[in-house]
Amino acid sequence: MYVPSASELKHYLIDRNISIRQYSEWSGVDRYHIEKLIKQFEIPVPKRVPMPDRSDLVERFERLMKAKDVAAHYGVSPTTITHWCRVMKVSVGDYKRPSEDKRPTDEQLYVWYELEKKSLNTIATMLKVDREVLRTWMDDAEIERRPTNYRTLDINELELDIADDLARGELKYTEIARKYGISNSTLLRFREKHGFPIRRKPE
Description:
CATH architecture of the largest domain: Orthogonal Bundle
Radius of gyration: 18 Å
Oligomer: single chain
Structural class: mainly alpha
């Protein structure tokens, strides 16, 4: 059975603010065993903050506008705020005001996404905007997003970024693992769990 190190547990449970349940499902390590390791390594895992009511979350966005400020109000990470918004179907893009000169035309969005097959993550990085803002722009342009299996999974933002890189196929598996600070074996378990090929076909 795979046994995560103290540094790996600290990285995900504290630095990334991933819950024990999410880490257990992702890594394949039993939740009870993870809790024993937390006590053994004396890792100061913060107490989980309960999810607020939808009306309260919307009110905070209307007042504070930015996800990082809303996160600071609740004492959680921006990743947790993103997760809450997805669960409660709150569109973060409605409360963000990126400079209009960053917004490409509908035609340019169509070319990047439909013709050049760029991912949302790639386009958002190019434009230097949040992915939720880009989704709002694409909805306004009536561009239907491509159906992808991993987008229907209940996984966190970090895992979505890893899935994006795996789907694009531009980086080697070892490069992806290094990019996100995870081991090759952890990436292998992720690929096995979510149906990504274990070995890439030779070009």
